[in-house]
Design brief:
Layout (H helix, E strand, L loop, with lengths): L12 H4 L1 H11 L4 H5 L5 E4 L14 E15 L6 E8 L5 E7 L3 H6 L5 E11 L2 E5 L2 E4 L8 H9 L4 E4 L8 H14 L9 H6 L5 H9 L4 H32 L12 H8 L6 H14 L6 E6 L5 H14 L3 E5 L3 H15 L16 E5 L5 H12 L3 E6 L13 E7 L6 H8 L7 E6 L5 H6 L5 E5 L9 E7 L4 H16 L3 E5 L27 H10 L7 E4 L5 H12 L5 E4 L12 E6 L7 H8 L9 E7 L6 H11 L3 H11 L2 H4 L2 H4 L14 H17 L7 H10 L2 H9 L1
Parallel strand pairs: 4-6, 9-14, 9-15, 10-12, 10-13, 11-12, 13-14, 16-21, 17-19, 17-20, 18-19, 20-21
Antiparallel strand pairs: 1-8, 2-3, 2-5, 3-4, 5-6, 5-7
Keywords: ATP-binding, DNA damage, DNA repair, DNA-binding, Helicase, Hydrolase, Nucleotide-binding
GO molecular function, one term: ATP binding
Protein name: Probable DNA 3'-5' helicase RecG
Length: 733
């Protein structure tokens, strides 16, 4: 222990003792005074304002402020001794039973009716009652032996705000509060990194006051000011990083790709069998102008499922080919890469048949490069790419391998960018002599604040119209546990659609036996729910049962590449009636004859994932139907989420819902770097105005001082909040 001033770098063992420091490090990854000071309370309890016990979920680790209502001692059935049942309530009508095993008469004396306390543990359910088994607790106010250690810090908050920290079973919130108090008593806050002009213009408190008030708030008003300042630091760090990168990118040289009149693009437009939507034309103009500049384009193209992004991307690729360069499209799966290849060959026709009988005079070649190509086919494809004869190159991460060389790579199109790591995208860009133009596509609509915060250095284009001929998709929740007859009816609907000559998808969350894949959730959660349904188990059951006699195919990520491609070709050709698959069909798969999709265990999928999945049906002239099968009960959060998906086809509304339900750190890329995120308070949903203001201040500051050389403390603070690895993630989405 030390009474000397402590800084953000002081090891915790010097301040709180070796044993406590070890617990903080092993359970919460907190090692220094700075780590602990930036471990902010999750919420604040206040006498008179209590957590609603009725809202707690079974399996949740909770800390609740509650009052002891009654106690009862009864003998245990299975072994000798007694157990103590303490019923606590929060004043809202919700009650919890805290159960203590063994003879603990002293607890009965301590936990007297009327006493208030903080109770921490895992919520379980027994015979319809919510329980905490053997919870940790600390009583408020005067009391018995068990609370002595905690009373010192609790008294500071008597009648005021009690911080409740993100905690662990071995390190409850009041232990964290005690450690924070010890650190704050000696803490010497860092020099304020935020320029005084920004603090003054935005009415922000100093960093020292903010860090003290967020842990030991003197009032609700001061707590609000502290949180606002610390949120600002997080938003400002992210926006400075993005604005700096955008500023640097504007100075990079790139080869202008203006296209040429009478070239492939004009010929392609003339042979298109349909009219472009006004949105496709407008976005096409934006992209064409970007490609014609001497700086690399960095544009994000977002559009609803089926809005025609691929045609927009193909037109951009043809403009680059007309300029003498090459374009590469990176797809997340071989299934999607092969489908893009077939689709582009169909759209281009003779324009993609350079050197072939019937090819157009100025035709190019479209090559597919994947890991499953045979040796001879691979050598031929690589020669076409290296020689520049292949103007358009499609592939998976196999494009990144050594030996894939381009003659003049001018444009990189990344489809469904969230499936790729930063290093993979960098490897492809490095194959060009100068930075190529980059077009990133996503069918997952992005809320405005996410676009501003995660994609802040990209220009954003949005396609919101659907091309003519696309049919509406009806979605319904099928509550299999409550109404089994509804599930029977779902399988009959599949048979009815097949009888009309259409096809169906059945989507499962899991592949089946064998190691887990990226496309499936963990087989079982902490609460012991049954494993999610698996493709390899469901397909034979359907073939023997409700879909007996139909032609059923199976598709998942563990199949060999040639087998996956063969299955997709068979399905696209109408040789299969039903495709039982994982989320490998989530992006880009285009079979216009498929009209119905059944998603099993739909509650195991995310909102955006479900929206993507159902976009696989209704792609032709016949209406689409998506049935979301679930055992989640009415009124549960999972069921409400599914009802929301079924209730709208507006991807932007669903994206906002998805954002509400995801942790901010996930959105901001904390999980991408594998490190603990320092972005803890900022809410992309609630803090849109603050993020916008931070963006404006960051833009002004970077224009005046691009590398923050006149603000070294700020530069260091940004580096701490947004480390280089996460900055790379933020830069490229």
């Amino acid at each position: 222990m030390t009474s000397e001033p402590s800084t953000v770098d002081t090891p915790l063992k010097k301040l709180v003792g070796e044993r406590t420091a070890k617990a903080l490090a092993s359970h919460l990854d907190l090692h220094t005074a700075g780590d602990l000071i930036y471990h902010f309370p999750r919420r604040y309890d206040e006498r008179g304002e209590h957590t609603d016990i009725r809202s707690l979920d079974v399996g949740e680790q909770v800390t609740v402020l509650a009052q002891v209502q009654r106690t009862a001692v009864r003998p245990m059935r299975q072994r000798r001794g007694n157990l103590l049942e303490v019923t606590v309530g929060d004043g809202s009508g919700g009650v919890l039973t805290c159960t203590f095993f063994g003879n603990q008469a002293w607890r009965e004396r301590e936990l007297r009716p009327g006493r208030w306390g903080l109770f921490a543990g895992k919520v379980t359910e027994f015979r319809g009652k919510r329980q905490l088994n053997g919870p940790e607790y600390v009583l408020l106010g005067e009391g018995g032996d068990g609370e002595a250690a905690a009373n010192e810090e609790v008294e500071e908050f008597a009648g005021a705000l009690i911080p409740v920290y993100p905690a662990a079973a071995a390190v409850p919130t009041w232990v964290i509060a005690r450690c924070v108090r010890v650190v704050l008593d000696t803490f010497d806050p860092p020099d304020d990194p935020l320029p005084a002009t920004v603090r003054a213009s935005r009415n922000l408190v100093g960093i020292g006051a903010a860090l003290r008030e967020i842990h030991r708030p003197s009032s609700k008003e001061e707590l609000y000011r502290a949180r606002r300042r610390l949120k600002w630091d997080e938003a400002f760090a992210v926006q400075l990083t993005l604005v700096q990168r955008k500023h640097r990118a504007a100075d990079w040289p790139a080869k202008s790709r203006p296209g040429r009149p009478g070239g492939l693009l004009d010929a392609f437009d003339a042979r298109l069998p349909y009219e472009l939507t006004s949105g496709q034309r407008d976005v096409g103009v934006e992209i064409a102008a970007d490609l014609a500049t001497a700086h690399p384009m960095h544009r994000l193209l977002q559009g609803e499922v089926g809005s025609g992004k691929t045609v927009v991307a193909l037109r951009a690729m043809l403009q680059v080919v007309d300029s003498g360069g090459q374009a590469a499209l990176l797809a997340p799966t071989e299934v999607l890469a092969a489908q893009h290849h077939r689709g582009m060959l169909d759209l281009l026709g003779p324009l993609a048949q350079a050197g072939e009988l019937g090819g157009a005079d100025d035709a190019t070649r479209v090559e597919l490069v994947t890991g499953s190509l045979g040796a001879a086919a691979r050598r031929r494809a690589l020669a076409e790419v290296a020689g520049g004869r292949a103007g358009i190159v499609l592939g998976t991460h196999a494009l990144l391998y050594e030996g894939v060389d381009f003659a003049d790579l001018g444009l990189v199109v990344v489809d469904e960018q969230h499936r790729f790591g930063v290093e993979q995208r960098d490897a492809l860009r490095a194959k060009a002599d100068q930075p190529p133009h980059v077009l990133v596509m996503t069918a997952t609509p992005i809320p405005r604040t996410v676009a501003m915060t995660v994609y802040g250095d990209l220009e954003v284009s949005t396609l919101s119209q659907l091309p003519q001929g696309r049919s509406p998709i009806a979605s319904h929740v099928v509550p299999a546990a409550e109404k089994p007859a509804f599930l029977d009816r779902a399988w009959r609907r599949v048979r009815e659609e097949v009888a009309k000559g259409h096809q169906a998808y059945v989507v499962c969350p899991r592949i089946g036996e064998g190691p887990q894949s990226d496309e499936e959730p963990p087989p079982e959660d902490d609460n012991g729910k049954r494993p999610p349904l698996a493709v390899t188990e469901v397909a034979p059951l359907l073939a023997e049962g409700p879909l007996h006699g139909l032609r059923i195919g199976v598709l998942h990520g563990r199949l060999p590449a040639d087998e996956k491609d063969a299955v997709m070709r068979s399905y696209a050709a109408g040789e299969l009636d039903v495709l039982v698959a994982t989320t490998v069909v989530e992006v880009g798969v285009n079979v216009p004859n498929a009209t119905v999709m059944i998603v099993l265990d739909a509650d195991r999928f995310g909102v955006s994932q479900l929206h993507q999945l159902r976009g696989r049906v209704g792609r032709g002239s016949a209406a689409g139907l998506c049935l979301l099968v679930t055992e989640a009960m009415e009124g549960s959060s999972a069921r409400e989420r599914l009802d929301a998906v079924a209730g709208t086809t507006d991807g932007f509304k669903l994206a906002e819902l998805d954002l509400e339900q995801r942790r901010e750190g996930d959105v901001l890329g904390a999980t991408q770097s594998g490190r603990r995120s320092h972005l803890r308070l900022l809410s992309l949903k609630r803090d849109a105005d603050l993020i916008r203001d931070a963006r404006a201040e960051a833009t002004v500051l970077v224009e005046e001082d691009p590398e923050l050389t006149r603000h070294p403390a700020l530069a260091a603070s940004v580096a701490a909040l947004v480390d280089e690895e996460r900055a790379e993630y933020l830069e490229k989405g």
